[in-house]
Structures are given as C-alpha cells and as structure tokens.
Specification:
By secondary structure, this protein is an alpha/beta fold. It is 55% helix and 13% strand. It is globular, with a radius of gyration of 23 Å. The termini are far apart.
Length: 314
C-alpha cells in the first residue's frame, strides 16, 4: 500500500512537471506562428528582385514571393524563359492581390551593365526592398584539367556578378533606410569537395562577402541573409561547366535525389521574413561534413582524399 502511494506521488510530480513545461511550449509555438504570419503579411507589395529566375530554384522563389503579394522582378539571360515564368505566375496565382511581375533580362557576367539594369528597375518600381542573388553556374572537373578561363567565368557569374548587382542596389536601400540582401550560396561554400574547385571557391567568397557586408550595412537597417542549401533537384548539374568550358550535360545522382526547389524556396521565404543571418538547408550527412571540417579537420581531409581518388577512377 505504501509503495502504491509513493508511485502515485511520483506520477503526480512527473505529470505536474510535464504540464509546467508543455504549457509554455504551446504558448511559445502559438506566439511564434502568429508572429510568422504577421511577418509574411508584411511582404505584401514588397519589390523583390530575383536573379536566375528563369528556372529551378529562382523560378520557385518567384512563385514563393509572388503568392505572398510581392512585386517580383524576374532577372536572367533568357527572355523567353522569363516570359514563361511570368505567364505561369499570372496563371497559377490569379487571385493574389499583387502587381504583375516585371521582366528584366540581364547577364551577371557582364558586370559593367548591371548598374543600368538596376536603374531600369528603379524607374518602374521606385525602390528595391529585397534582392535575392540566386543566379549561378556550377563546375565539374579537377583542378589540373580545368582551364583558368573556366575558373574566371564561374567566379565572374557566382561571385563578382552578385557583388556588382548588390553594390548597384545598395544606394537605393541606404536612401530608404531599409532593405534585405539574400545570397544563395551552397553547402559547398562551407565544405569544399573534389572536382568542384571553382564552384566551391566562388561560394566560399560569397560567404565571406556577406559577413563583411552584414556588419557594414546594419547601421542603415539593411539585413543580409546567406543561404547554404544542399543538393537541389534542378538543371544545375546539367548546365555545370566542365574543365574545358563545355556543359556537363548530365543529371548527377545526388542532384536527382536532392530537395525539390519549392521546398528550398519556402525555407528561404521563411528565413527572409524572420530576417535570419544564415540558414543551412541540408540532410544529416552534409551536417556531419561541416562538423568534421570545423572540429576534426584531419578526419575531414582524409575523407576528401578518398573521395578524390574515387572520382579519378571513374
């Protein structure tokens, strides 16, 4: 009888403790959901410029922000594909109370032309609230077989193009004392892989630039978000440049099994409304690689040597 009473008392204490922890957790979750909904509502009529918007993640980002009521500005080289994305937005979200999408064809590798493109956008919209630097090109090839011209082209598009476009947009944001700059980097901007030297280098550079920029523009009420996603199921691997500069032309198995672009776009949208400084979107294995690179670098280096040898045998 005494044992039963002790058991009852123990269960009562456990139940009270669980209740004491559960109620604040529920309140926290509800408050967080309310704040998140309010933040999403604040996106209404924001001017969002998206590069690489003609396909893949950029196209998914266009849908993500357009359905939130933003005025999206679609930027990429292929006008015909931008027209297709624009038509898809208008057809898919006909009841969304927003301004029709704007098309601005541009080439990120032509960095001297980017300020004039920004001027054209501002002439229409009057301001730019959010810039999403998403456009880019990947790389497949060893260091020794990759021509320097390929390294330059990848850095020009992935890094210098994003930097030049950001610098062209910043004066307007500073004038308005408001803005947000988003850089779509990669897990490979955190951990470098063999056969991806040029791509990894460009994304590492983007990581460093975003950290410097974040500190400098904070006083102007401008936030900076760096996004590091894992593999995404897009045409990135098919369009990747080989060491000679030709297209890779193949869908890698890792890319084929990657995240859907719509999921990554929704995570980026959430990061934007929460004004997060950095987010990593990946599975467990890349997180292990990040951990090893930071805390057990010798183990990480050993794993990468084995991966490089495996790649060379193909």
């Amino acid at each position: 009888m005494l044992d039963g009473k002790k058991l009852y008392q123990s269960l009562s204490v456990f139940g009270s403790l669980s209740l004491a922890l559960t109620i604040p957790w529920i309140v926290f979750k509800v408050c967080r959901a309310v704040c998140l909904k309010r933040n999403y509502h604040a996106l209404m009529r924001k001017v969002v410029v998206i590069t690489g918007a003609s396909s893949g993640l950029g196209e998914a980002l266009a849908h993500e922000f357009y359905k939130q009521g933003c005025q999206v500005v679609l930027c990429a080289r292929r006008r015909q594909e931008l027209e297709r994305v624009r038509s898809d937005l208008l057809r898919t979200h006909p009841t969304v109370p927003t301004i029709p999408p704007i098309i601005q064809p541009l080439d990120l590798s032509d960095i001297n032309s980017l300020p004039s493109h920004v001027e054209k956008i501002l002439a229409i919209t009057g301001r730019i609230d959010i810039l999403i630097n998403n456009g880019g090109v990947s790389h497949r090839g060893s260091v020794i077989t990759t021509q320097p011209d390929v390294d330059i082209k990848i850095m020009l598009v992935n890094y210098f193009g994003a930097v030049a476009l950001t610098k062209a947009v910043l004066p307007n944001m500073i004038k308005n004392k408001s803005g947000q700059v988003v850089f779509v980097s990669s897990i490979q901007g955190l951990v470098a892989l063999p056969e991806r030297s040029a791509y990894c280098a460009s994304k590492h550079a983007l990581q460093a630039f975003s950290d410097s920029l974040r500190a400098e523009v904070a006083a102007h009420n401008i936030s900076v978000t760096i996004v590091s996603p894992g593999y995404i199921k897009t045409e990135l691997s098919r369009n990747a440049l080989t060491g000679s500069g030709t297209k890779h032309g193949e869908m890698d198995a890792t890319t084929e099994s990657g995240y859907l672009p719509e999921y990554v776009a929704s995570e980026i949208g959430r990061a934007v409304v929460q004004k997060k400084k950095e987010i990593v979107i990946c599975t467990f294995l890349p997180r292990i690689a990040i951990f090893l690179r930071k805390y057990l670098p010798s183990v990480y280096f050993s794993v990468m040597v084995k991966r490089a040898k495996k790649a060379q045998l193909k």
